[in-house]
UniProtKB/TrEMBL annotation, chains A, B:
Presence of keyword Mitochondrion: no
Domain MaoC-like: 27-129
Chain coiled-coil ranges: none
Organism: Paracoccus aminophilus JCM 7686
Official protein name in the record: MaoC-like dehydratase
Length: 163, 163
């Protein structure tokens, strides 16, 4: 779709994306991000601050855990996903999330490079407020081998183009 | 409940909490965290890295947005919630999340001090693997005025006490 190409441009940071408003969105539109590399040091730094568990901060201790090696906090995978969405899903009024449902089919590992593919699932105009609606977006976060690390479905409060 | 008192001790970082395994958990148990203060600089620093939208990084520009002033990224509220859970919900095998459902009834603001109250909703032993089960936990994140900033329901993979 047309906006696909524009979204992929963001990888090269060539031009800002054309802002999209409620009336520009359609079910099935897809937006693909650039690639975001993640190393061991970045995994440990995030986890020390927000999720200091052995399998996220200590490569040696992680070997004897459920993860059998260092794994990123799922909330880091989510935070990076958000960063990539701000770059690749150009909703004019911003990405204002009302709520989200998240699953992690497999852990993010040191050396993974993440990218996102966001797809519009549903568009629901507000009944009481004609200037806005909710757009439901499903985003997959994948690594360089195409393995799905995270699925998140988000309801985004979206406005019509200002008059 | 008994574990309430232990959980609250973590605020003073006096003693490590007694680790809990699948057989120690019961529906209705509650775990309360210490308080985590959040200022404008911390909100902007997180958002610059993971959610660089005007209403999260620019106090002036934020005034003319939906949020009518600087608001923390919901993913920062979630990351802080995770940090507080690692300190206050002492599951022996760690907090291994399979998935989560999140909602933000109102934004987190500069000057808010956050704490969490986690409550065990459901315990489902695995049918095929007798050493483990899933524990569903509902966590509210509240500010210093008792206003709910976030609701998250998480399914946590939990193991029985090692033999």
């Amino acid at each position: 779709m047309a906006n696909d190409i524009k979204a992929r441009d963001s990888a090269d940071q060539v031009a800002p994306l054309r802002p999209l408003y409620l009336e520009d969105l359609a079910v099935g539109q897809e937006f693909t991000s650039r690639s975001y590399p993640l190393d061991e040091a970045a995994i440990i730094a995030f986890a020390r601050q927000y999720d200091p568990q052995p399998f996220h901060i200590d490569p040696e201790a992680a070997k004897d855990t459920f993860f059998q090696g260092l794994a990123a906090s799922g909330w880091q995978t989510m935070a990076i996903t958000m960063r990539l969405l701000t770059e690749s899903l150009p909703i004019g009024s911003g990405l204002i999330g009302a709520g989200a449902e998240i699953g992690w089919p497999q852990p993010t590992r040191p050396g993974d490079a993440l990218h996102t593919v966001a797809r519009v699932l549903e568009i629901t105009p507000s009944r009481s407020k004609p200037d806005r609606g909710f757009v439901t977006v499903h985003t997959q976060t994948l690594n360089q081998r195409g393995e799905v690390l995270q699925n998140v479905t988000t309801r985004i409060l979206t406005f019509r183009r200002p008059a």
